[in-house]
Design goal:
119 residues; mainly alpha
Length: 119
């Protein structure tokens, strides 16, 4: 598991960096899950024209969509790391069997074995 722990920790740093560029952590959320919020667009609403306002709203919506996917990935990594600490990493959440090593190499935060990956 030390190999997977290292991979997960490295990926967590990358995902955290990407999230920090487009969002901020919600400080009110506790436990192992982190909630992120997209950063508002940086512009002056007093001098913005309709086009600029529309572009900034579109940028914010795109950041929100990207942030949501990164947030899911971030929380999956954090969960996998907590499973390593608890000693139950690499077990399918559906059937309890070991998750295949090639699956964990492809996705160290996988929650299920190949048989249940689409459940």
């Amino acid at each position: 598991t030390s190999h997977f722990k290292q991979k997960l920790e490295e990926e967590l740093v990358l995902v955290d960096g990407e999230l920090s560029q487009i969002g901020t952590k919600n400080p009110n959320v506790q436990n192992n899950v982190t909630d992120w919020q997209a950063k508002p667009a940086d512009f002056n609403t007093d001098t913005a024209d309709e086009t600029e306002l529309g572009d900034k709203i579109e940028e914010y919506e795109e950041n929100t969509a990207v942030l949501k996917n990164l947030e899911i990935r971030y929380n999956d990594i954090k969960l996998a790391l907590s499973k390593i600490e608890a000693g139950n990493y690499g077990k399918c959440e559906v059937c309890g069997k070991d998750i295949e090593e090639d699956r964990l190499n492809a996705n160290p935060s996988a929650k299920t074995c190949k048989e249940h990956m689409n459940v």
